[in-house]
């Protein structure tokens, strides 16, 4: 058995509404715009050996089949047991139709070489599809605005996956308070987790507090501002979180990279960041930083003031005919 550099007991955990435990930090696997499936899966292999136990996957990332090989090898070699890792995946927008959610999950389970998922998310609350690797101006004429009724048809399929024992928890992603108010009261099984964009320049405090008050654990994507996000998600006026004075001040005080300050802030705030890197030095540092030298209360308060309402993943490729701007996606 390979000895983990970071003992799993050192990484803080949160407790979900079900009583299940989930690590306070995970590894994202969305890198398809810049890295091959082989590069991403190699990073997952290294992360498993180093001590990561939470992995955020999705069918649309195009690498689950390669990650599945890594998981299978890790189980066979005794690096980790299946029950020791928390694996998330997501149903993509073009698989919201009747019966499609089960088909999507079946492929994900086959690709990841797993019998069940710890959590399965509705990736976006729209059935609006865009081609992989498209640019920011791409539009699908069949795209439609949010419909609570249509969403609940998809959610009912998610609930049946729990009934069948194929997934342990279900969750939502890229939601707003307005949308959540429209659907939560209609859910037979409440979401255990919600994934949202979160970083110092875009903290979504109201949505974060809304979820926490309802016992929903928050996973934050783009936790360091996602400098390697797809070009379609880059726009004039976007801010760089790691260059903000509040973040830089804490980085100097702790003698660490500003990106690690963003991760410490997220975990100490109570959310689960899912940074991604194929570079060993980076993903090791990301995990290690949440086990040592926490930010002070004064530093946490200062970073809270770094809020700039700077959404990076605007989602404009999902706009429907007649929509005015990407802001329509977010109510």
Please tell me about this protein's structure:
- The protein is 34% helix and 11% strand.
- It is of the alpha/beta class and 331 residues long.
- It has a single domain, classed as Alpha-Beta Barrel (TIM Barrel).
- The strands form 2 sheets. Strands 3-4-5-6-7-8-9-10 form an 8-stranded parallel beta sheet. It has a two-stranded antiparallel ribbon with strand order 1-2.
- β3, α1 and β4 form a beta-alpha-beta unit.
- α1 packs parallel to α2, α2 crosses α3 and α7 crosses α8.
- The longest helix has 16 residues.
- The radius of gyration is 19 Å and the shape is globular.
Q: Helix/strand/pairing class, anyone? A: alpha/beta
Number of helices: 10
Strand segment count: 10
Bin the strand percentage. Answer: 5-15%
Low-confidence stretches: none
Largest sheet: 8 strands, parallel
Q: What does the radius of gyration come to? A: 19 Å
CATH superfamily: NADP-dependent oxidoreductase domain
For the biggest β-sheet, the strand order reads: 3-4-5-6-7-8-9-10
pLDDT average, as an integer?
95
Count of spatially separate domains: 1
Q: What is the CATH first-level class name?
A: Alpha Beta
Order of helices and strands: EEEHEHEHEHEHEHEHHEHH
Give me the CATH architecture, please.
Alpha-Beta Barrel
Give the end-to-end Cα distance, rounded to a whole number of Å: 50 Å
Shape: globular
The third-level CATH topology is TIM Barrel
Helix content: 25-40%
